[in-house]
UniProtKB/TrEMBL annotation:
<dbReference type="GO" id="GO:0006886">
    <property type="term" value="P:intracellular protein transport"/>
</dbReference>
<dbReference type="GO" id="GO:0016192">
    <property type="term" value="P:vesicle-mediated transport"/>
</dbReference>
<dbReference type="Pfam" id="PF14938">
    <property type="entry name" value="SNAP"/>
</dbReference>
<keyword id="KW-0653">Protein transport</keyword>
<dbReference type="InterPro" id="IPR000744">
    <property type="entry name" value="NSF_attach"/>
</dbReference>
<keyword id="KW-0931">ER-Golgi transport</keyword>
<dbReference type="InterPro" id="IPR011990">
    <property type="entry name" value="TPR-like_helical_dom_sf"/>
</dbReference>
<protein>
    <recommendedName>
        <fullName>Gamma-soluble NSF attachment protein</fullName>
    </recommendedName>
</protein>
<keyword id="KW-0732">Signal</keyword>
<comment type="similarity">
    <text>Belongs to the SNAP family.</text>
</comment>
<dbReference type="GO" id="GO:0005774">
    <property type="term" value="C:vacuolar membrane"/>
</dbReference>
<feature type="signal peptide">
    <location>
        <begin position="1"/>
        <end position="15"/>
    </location>
</feature>
<keyword id="KW-0813">Transport</keyword>
<dbReference type="GO" id="GO:0005483">
    <property type="term" value="F:soluble NSF attachment protein activity"/>
</dbReference>
<keyword id="KW-0472">Membrane</keyword>
<dbReference type="GO" id="GO:0019905">
    <property type="term" value="F:syntaxin binding"/>
</dbReference>
<dbReference type="GO" id="GO:0031201">
    <property type="term" value="C:SNARE complex"/>
</dbReference>
């Protein structure tokens, strides 16, 4: 008996506190206005009202189930459930008209809400950053970025990219490098989609490449670093930015380090030709020629090397007079005489004055091993 009375009491309590049509209208308008204490947010909403007008509630149907109510928009785009004087979104479907205008009309109010929430998250992040609460700042910047991105127009996409960059910096502060790099890469991809921001995207891809090249990092990934360099190179070239050549050099060196020797040879060929007319890089042509020669040695193609070596001496006097040229000549002679000892001596003498990088040392050691095997025969 007591249980039955309790059940009646609970049912009556829910019945009296079920929200009605006026409550739903107030809920929709309140959520769309999404008030904020920030003056910048108030200014945004003021101009927003001038442009799109005061938000209105779409036509809806309300069903009363005594203990709760259900509201469905007439266009079928959303369903809400109300109980205990509160409303909850049950389901949402975007409605697109035959002329493509339906979706924009029905989602305009929702996009305003999302944009308002994004600005609030951004302001929360800025306050947290000021208090050096970088964990909260990172999460709030990330939340803001996702919401700006969801709105999708150009200005909001740029806001999203900026927030992703800020999230990257905050995640770096709390040593969450994986999340930091993921956020930064998302920012780069957004900038890449905007013609006016291609150089900015390229700079970020260069930063990402350097991060993935750090051997003491858990994110060490040379393949991914190479992809980042490629993206940067393409974007710099597309924008006519002078950093294109420097990015191309990084791409070529990394290709050689990974072992993509044919790819590195093609890249160094291009770099050599472009460096002739560059006052800064012209004096380094001898290095690029030498590095290309090393990639050919890595392929164990000495016939090709001798042919290219003669062409380089004829075309580039600065290489012909360099230590790199003399060293390459000694390597060829050692190979032709099948003398691994002479090969090793030449490497040691060169390395004493010009330190060889790990990838260059690796190629020469492998070439020496091949030469030793042939010498034993």
């Amino acid at each position: 008996m007591f249980f039955f009375i309790l059940l009646i009491f609970i049912g009556y309590y829910f019945y009296k506190r079920r929200p009605g049509a006026n409550s739903f209208r107030e809920y929709i308008l309140t959520n769309n206005s999404n008030s904020s204490s920030s003056s910048s947010q108030e200014l945004f909403k003021f101009f927003n009202k001038l442009l799109v007008g005061q938000p209105s509630v779409p036509e809806f149907k309300l069903d009363d189930y005594y203990c709760f109510t259900v509201v469905s928009f007439r266009d079928g785009s959303a369903t809400y459930v109300g109980f205990l004087n509160k409303w909850y979104l049950w389901s949402k479907i975007e409605v697109v008209g035959s002329n493509g205008r339906g979706k924009r009309k029905n989602s305009a109010t929702e996009m305003q809400v999302i944009e308002g929430l994004a600005y609030e998250d951004k302001e929360t992040a800025i306050r947290a950053k000021g208090k050096k609460d970088y964990y909260t700042a990172a999460r709030s910047f990330l939340s803001a970025a996702k919401q700006f991105k969801k709105v999708g127009d150009e200005s909001n996409l740029l806001e999203a990219a900026n927030c992703y960059e800020d999230a990257y910096k905050a995640f770096q502060q709390v040593k969450q490098t994986d999340k930091a790099l993921e956020a930064l890469e998302t920012a780069a991809s957004i900038y890449e989609g905007n013609v006016r921001q291609s150089t900015r995207a390229a700079r970020i891809y260069e930063i990402l490449a350097e991060q993935y090249k750090k051997s003491n990092s858990l994110q060490y990934n040379l393949e991914k670093a190479l992809r980042m360099h490629r993206k940067a190179t393409d974007l710099f070239e597309l924008d006519g930015d002078g950093r294109f050549l420097f990015s191309l050099i990084s791409q070529a060196e990394l290709s050689a380090e990974i072992g993509y020797y044919e790819q590195a040879i093609d890249l160094f060929d291009n770099i050599i030709k472009l460096s002739v007319n560059d006052s800064i890089l012209n004096y380094k042509i001898k290095n690029y020629i030498f590095w290309q020669c090393l990639c050919i040695i890595a392929l164990d193609d000495w016939v090709r090397l001798e042919k290219k070596f003669k062409e380089f001496i004829e075309q580039y006097p600065s290489f012909a007079d360099s230590r790199e040229c003399a060293f390459t000549d000694k390597l060829i002679q050692s190979k032709n005489s099948c003398d691994p000892s002479e090969f090793a001596t030449a490497c040691k003498e060169y390395d004493q004055l010009t330190t060889l990088t790990p990838w260059q040392t690796h190629i020469l050691l492998e070439a020496k091993k091949v030469l030793e095997v042939k010498d034993l025969r």
